[in-house]
Amino acid sequence: PLMALSTTMAESFKELDPDSSMGKALEMSCAIQNQLARILAEFEMTLERDVLQPLSRLSEEELPAILKHKKSLQKLVSDWNTLKSRLSQATKNSGSSQGLGGGPGSHSHTTMANKVETLKEEEEELKRKVEQCRDEYLADLYHFVTKEDSYANYFIHLLEIQADYHRRSLSSLDTALAELRENHGQADHSPSMAATHFSRVYGVSLATHLHELGREIALPIEACVMMLLSEGMKE
């Protein structure tokens, strides 16, 4: 938008007298809008390179990997707890069948013992997977913690480059305004009384405006009221 405004101004001031007050002001405004656009573009490129890209790697690569391990660990722990409950119940059933008169050689006791043994093997295997997944998850968390200060610095750097952007923009505006006011002040020294009076309408206190022009109502207000009376009474 700033560059588009600068281009429009550049096309417009060509139609004006380059030595006129308005022509000079428009040309200076065109140049400053172009400069502000370039400062903004540099800020956005720096922001993308130094802040957004590193943080996008964090959000798109590292954090999803951590969350994936966390989810896997939660599922494995849940499966492990379920399997331990099944193993505990099977062990109780095996003891009950033996206590109810089923001899060690009975078919039902042998089947139950085999089932308990199988569940124990599955439980041991699942326990190993839980420990492995927990180690991977903790390693991810530790790796993240070691870089946490670096990630915090990205947000600090964001504020730093924003501050630098605003300082550069403000400096450009202050310089341009000082030059514009100086040029405009020189152009105001005209022998024309009308021009002198017009220059005192704005930029002075209301009391000064009324006193110098000998008015009871400020000129801009009276002009607006007269326009409304003549053109706007049916609107």
Fold topology:
Blueprint: H1 2-13, H2 21-99, H3 107-146, H4 148-187, H5 193-199, H6 206-213, H7 219-231
Walkthrough of the structure:
The chain is mainly alpha-helical and about 240 residues long. It folds into two domains: about 1-95 and about 110-190, Up-down Bundle (Substrate Binding Domain Of Dnak, Chain:A, Domain 2); about 200-235, no CATH class. About 85% of the residues lie in helices and about 0% in strands. The protein is built from seven helices and no strands. The radius of gyration is 40 Å and the shape is elongated. Residues about 190-200 have low confidence and may be disordered. One of its GO terms (molecular function) is GTPase activator activity.
Summarize the structure.
85% of the residues lie in helices and 0% in strands.
Write down the domain tally. 2
The succession of helices and strands, N to C, reads: HHHHHHH
CATH class of the largest domain: Mainly Alpha
Q: What coarse outline follows from CA principal-axis ratios?
A: elongated
Q: Helix segment count?
A: 7
What is the third-level CATH name, the topology of the largest domain? Substrate Binding Domain Of Dnak, Chain:A, Domain 2
Largest sheet: none
Radius of gyration using CA atoms only:
40 Å
C-alpha end-to-end distance: 34 Å
Which CATH architecture of the largest domain?
A: Up-down Bundle
* Helical content (DSSP H or I, runs of 4+): over 70%
Give me the CATH superfamily of the largest domain: Arfaptin homology (AH) domain/BAR domain
Helix-and-strand structural type: mainly alpha
Number of strands: 0
Mean pLDDT: 83
Strand content: under 5%
Poorly predicted residue ranges: 189-199
